[in-house]
């Protein structure tokens, strides 16, 4: 196992080292200590390796991740897992604003709460939040799934496209063109799979409600002008 | 961007470390604002005395003999402690306004950064660590402190444009963000009798809160009211004689992290600013909600 102490190694050296890893890399287990809220820890990794970060991180941790499984044993600052392509990212604490923004794939699990704009413009990523999420989450979400075990803030799914949102708690308000939708068997099945992938076994998919696009704002229609 | 830090001590045993802890917090926020820096420290009030923090670009000439001049003008003994470009003038509590007028009459080039029984404010253009070193922040003690590293957006990089802004006795405000209706608000506040030293939007926010508190609101109520009247982006951290408040606008784009233990409440624009605080690993750490007033008093 490679152990990197960020009190001794620079962030640039760490990220360069991680970028040298590739498919079939021998060093598959990494531990990063003394993260001290640093920005851009483990950004742009493209290798099937496991990375454990001990402590909280600052902005943009694990951004653009491909293939790697990254766990932050602490909280994450704004933009964690931004534009992730594949792999798994787990935050054991809370995440700040725009977690998983524009993500194309992979799974982001936040065990604490996520702040505002969680999953903004998500494009295929799956996000599972055990706690609550803040306002304007899943704003302009295009595809993928956002699963929230707690409550959602104001304007959930504002101007949403085809992403599917599942919320177990209350929703403070829905954004433009976002509506509650029927939970059909295929949705329960999808949700069961997502919860299982996230390692969550203590809640039932039947406890959730589904939200998605009413598809009224896809094409401009003068009758809907007030909704924009 | 700008960086804000704040530390409100609950456990008196930690008070001697206030300056040293704030100094560390401020140092980590240099990257967020390299243009200028400033800090307000609330120390133990001396019985019956008040302090004016003065600043001058010509400190050597302006502060020389100022104590004798002011003492004569107000008819009471005063004390003057010079620290680089700043000086703290201690006067009897009921002579604050007379002393302010006497300073202005003697040297119009002197600015009054703050006045009150416990507040002192130091702020200058320059790299934040240099500014805090110059004014020996790490040696200061007290109950709470607020600091700011500025990346100038709405007005020029000047000493007066640096934060914190103090527009009332023992009050100060630091701001990360930008207000869009500050010109209108400034006009309205001027009409109601407030005076302004700069064209800075953050000074308007400070004066707005002072005006509301002068009308009888407490800090919490004034902060709540500001959500109706201030337009733009803001994260505010506000200090009063015995209080510490935090407010983010409803959109809450500007970053904020808070931590609380039995010993203190701390604020940072980023978690990095908090990592050296005692027992931070065991602290309750959270992101303040938008449009929600947080307020502590002791």
Q: What brief labels describe this structure?
A:
heterodimer, A: 228 residues, alpha/beta, elongated, B: 298 residues, alpha+beta, seven-stranded antiparallel beta sheet, 8 helices
Give the helix/strand layout.
The complex is a heterodimer of chains A (228) and B (298).
Chain A: E1 2-5, H1 11-20, E2 29-33, E3 50-54, E4 69-73, E5 88-91, E6 107-110, E7 123-129, E8 143-148, E9 164-167, E10 178-181, H2 185-197, E11 209-213
Parallel strand pairs in A: 1-2, 2-3, 3-4, 4-5, 5-6, 6-7, 7-8, 8-9
Antiparallel strand pairs in A: 9-11, 10-11
Chain B: E1 3-9, H1 18-28, E2 36-42, E3 49-55, H2 59-63, H3 66-74, E4 79-83, E5 86-92, H4 96-106, E6 111-116, E7 119-125, H5 128-134, E8 144-150, E9 172-179, H6 182-191, H7 201-214, H8 219-229, E10 232-239, E11 243-248, E12 257-260, E13 264-268, E14 284-286, E15 294-297
Antiparallel strand pairs in B: 1-8, 1-13, 2-7, 2-8, 3-5, 3-6, 4-5, 9-10, 10-11, 11-15, 12-13, 12-14
Descriptive account of the structure:
The complex is a heterodimer of chains A (228) and B (298). Chain A is an alpha/beta fold. In chain A, 10% of the residues lie in helices and 23% in strands. Chain A has an 11-stranded mixed sheet with strand order 1-2-3-4-5-6-7-8-9-11-10, covered by helices on one side. The N and C termini of chain A lie far apart (53 Å). Chain B starts with a strand and ends with a strand.
